[in-house]
Amino acid sequence: MGILAFLFNKIAMGEIFNCTKDKPLHLLMSGLNQFEIEELKVSGFIGEKDFSLLTEMSQERGKLHILDLSDVTETDCEIYSPAADDYYYPKVGIRDDAFVNSVRLEKVILPKGIEAKETVLSLAVLI
Question: How many domains does the chain have?
């Protein structure tokens, strides 16, 4: 079994991706068949490109239906505040357009204190 096949089998069985700013999710997953993954747990850091990848993985061509972000400790996502009529960067937040058209996604497990729009929170299980 090749190394990529081995890594993919471990991921499909619920392996955790421990991400940092230097080793973000989209780079750790490059070369893997991301669109075959059904369940995924991510910890550490998630950036803008990572949210784009997770959104694509849960749309029509992907299979991601359970996403566990409960151990995410930092993001660099821009959030819009209607009260301030401006954007800001919370320590842990989900970008406004995350999971748009995510027809496969059934459940997202989020960490406490997360900042996100209602559309994302409707899929969420908060811990």
Answer: 1
pLDDT of residue 9: 46
pLDDT in tens, 89-111: 667 777 777 788 888 888 888 88
**CB atoms closer than 10 angstroms to residue 109:** 17
Residue pair 23/48 in contact (Cβ under 8 Å)? The answer is: no
Give the three-state DSSP class for 85: coil
Segments forming the whole domain that contains residue 26: 3-126
3-state secondary structure of 86: strand
Q: Given pLDDT bands bounded at 50, 70 and 90, which one contains residue 25?
A: very high
Neighbouring residues of 92: CB distance < 8 A, sequence distance ≥ 6: 72, 73, 74, 75, 111, 113, 114, 115
Enter the tokens of residue 2: 């090749």
- pTM for the full predicted model: 0.75
Residue in the block written with tokens 């995410």: 72
- CATH code assigned at 14: 3.80.10
